[in-house]
């Protein structure tokens, strides 16, 4: 398809696309937009950075302009930052309509959100937890008339990961009309296809890009094999090289825990790198502020947990570094997809210890891509090894002296209360379970010892018998 005007959209929307540099539709847009305009449910699986957002925003705006009312469309997404990004696409593309959109996410003021919801916005973009809270606690808005339900990063919303959305989704689904169009999008839909089909019941149009590989062709995927203890030195060396050679590059470093994220940020700042962090234990306003500073290139390095691995669209990101090898190939696909977006180039570098080699094999098998080794001057890395490790230790001590672990414990308790559980009772239950586990272990050990003793006795007996028969 040559031009965005052949998608079946009104002239004002085509013009709006062109103003924003969307001239030629991407394959996911070319295939899904007409099907959605026909009134079909849709499941779109296309690579990271391939324009899935516009593939659902455009047909919704088209239909909304034909019959404008609120609340017309609900978009659900797993993270707060992503909700703001999607709302922005609606706002920008829907400007000529005077679109009213409302963002409903955790960590922000609930009263003003409730007010906005009761003002009948055309589009609501939400994370499931906070929207379910609003539905449970107020009857000042209705979603009984919505025409579109969209699940962006649909597989993440339906899987039972560290944040489980299933209960909240049940609450939300219970207030939505059965007659609606349901649109599901992600770069990794296929694992959760069955669950998705139970949400998009209306004979969904399924579209998946035909490409052999599951990661982007313009992405140069690399790995560095390193002992655990040298990992940070490799990281500092890599960043130093990028800073020396490219003053316009932005880098995202993914790591596994909030604590590690904090420590790495402190460590890189000690080396005078413009680094800033993003993880779920930060206050929400701080999270938004940090992301905004990174997007504006005030800080060139973002250290994040997987909270930033999906959907975020930041064109300046040239490099993604995986400080830990992701345990699941799909997490790898989303993480490295933060670079090489919309036809741009990009590099991803995964730090791999000897214990992670099997994970790399899984990633290669699933993505149908072979990772190449990233050439590096080991001598240069060894020169800074001691200094880096001492700095890291200093940062760890500094963080331990703050109340980081205490805050983590308070957050855990808050989460349990929100889930309707008693934190003290849960702690007791956990301690009892641990006690039972320990007793079982002891019991097993005793049995093993007994078996060993019996075996020993039998062997001894046999030897004695043999000696006896030899003598006689
Ligand atoms: N037809 C188009 N032509 C040029 N650029 C486009 C087109 N459609 C979308 N884009 C741009 O491509 C970028 C990536 O789009 P988008 O964020 O929708 O990707 P995605 O497929 O949702 O990726 P992810 O899987 O990471 O969420 C955006 O900056 C968007 O403005
Ligand atoms: Mg997206």
From TrEMBL:
A motif (Q motif) lies at residues 2-30. GO terms for cellular component: cytosol; nucleolus; nucleoplasm. InterPro entries: DEAD/DEAH_box_helicase_dom, DEAD_box_RNA_helicase, Helicase_ATP-bd, Helicase_C-like, P-loop_NTPase, RNA-helicase_DEAD-box_CS, RNA_helicase_DEAD_Q_motif. Residues 440-472 are annotated as: Disordered. Residues 2-30 form the DEAD-box RNA helicase Q domain. It is found in: Nucleus, Nucleolus. Residues 453-472 have a biased composition (Basic residues). This is Probable ATP-dependent RNA helicase DDX49. It comes from Austrofundulus limnaeus. Residues 218-382 form the Helicase C-terminal domain. Signal peptide: none annotated. It catalyses: ATP + H2O = ADP + phosphate + H(+).
């Amino acid at each position: 398809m040559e031009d965005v005007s052949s998608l079946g959209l009104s002239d004002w929307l085509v013009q709006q696309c062109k103003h924003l540099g969307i001239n030629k539709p991407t394959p996911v847009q070319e295939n899904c937009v007409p099907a959605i305009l026909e009134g079909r449910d849709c499941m779109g699986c296309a690579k990271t950075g391939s324009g899935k957002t516009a593939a659902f925003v455009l047909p919704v705006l088209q239909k909304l302009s034909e019959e404008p009312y609120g609340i017309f469309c609900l978009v659900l997404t797993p993270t707060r930052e992503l909700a703001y990004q999607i709302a922005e696409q609606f706002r920008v593309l829907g400007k000529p309509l005077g679109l009213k959109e409302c963002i409903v996410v955790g960590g922000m003021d609930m009263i003003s959100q409730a007010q906005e919801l009761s003002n009948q916005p055309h589009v609501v973009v939400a994370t499931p937890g906070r929207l379910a809270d609003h539905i449970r606690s107020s009857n000042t808005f209705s979603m009984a008339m919505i025409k579109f339900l969209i699940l962006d990063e649909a597989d993440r919303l339906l899987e039972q990961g560290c944040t489980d959305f299933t209960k909240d989704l049940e609450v939300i689904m219970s207030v939505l009309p059965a007659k609606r169009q349901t649109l599901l999008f992600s770069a990794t839909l296929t694992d959760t296809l069955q669950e998705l089909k139970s949400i998009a019941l209306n004979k969904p149009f399924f579209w998946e890009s035909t490409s052999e590989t599951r990661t982007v062709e313009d992405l140069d995927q690399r790995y560095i094999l390193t002992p655990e203890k040298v990992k940070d030195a490799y990281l500092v060396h890599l960043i130093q090289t990028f800073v020396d050679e490219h003053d316009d590059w932005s880098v995202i470093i993914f790591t596994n825990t909030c604590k590690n994220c904090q420590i790495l940020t402190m460590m890189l700042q000690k080396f005078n790198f413009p680094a800033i962090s993003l993880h779920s234990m930060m206050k929400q306003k701080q999270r938004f502020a940090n992301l905004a500073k990174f997007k504006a290139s005030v800080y060139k390095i973002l250290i994040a947990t997987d909270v930033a691995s999906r959907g975020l669209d930041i064109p300046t990101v040239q490099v993604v570094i995986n400080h830990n090898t992701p345990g699941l190939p799909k997490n790898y696909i989303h993480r490295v997809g933060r670079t090489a977006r919309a036809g741009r180039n990009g590099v991803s570098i995964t730090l791999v210890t000897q214990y992670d080699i099997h994970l790399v094999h899984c990633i290669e098998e699933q993505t149908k891509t072979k990772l190449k080794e990233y050439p590096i001057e080991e001598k240069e890395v060894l020169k800074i090894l001691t200094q880096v490790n001492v700095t890291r230790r200093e940062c760890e001590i500094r963080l331990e002296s703050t109340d980081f672990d205490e805050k983590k414990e308070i957050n855990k308790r808050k989460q349990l209360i929100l889930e309707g559980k008693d934190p003290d009772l849960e702690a007791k239950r956990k301690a009892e379970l641990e006690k039972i586990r320990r007793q079982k272990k002891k019991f097993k050990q005793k049995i093993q010892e007994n078996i060993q003793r019996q075996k020993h006795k039998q062997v001894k007996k046999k030897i004695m018998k043999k000696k006896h028969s030899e003598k006689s």
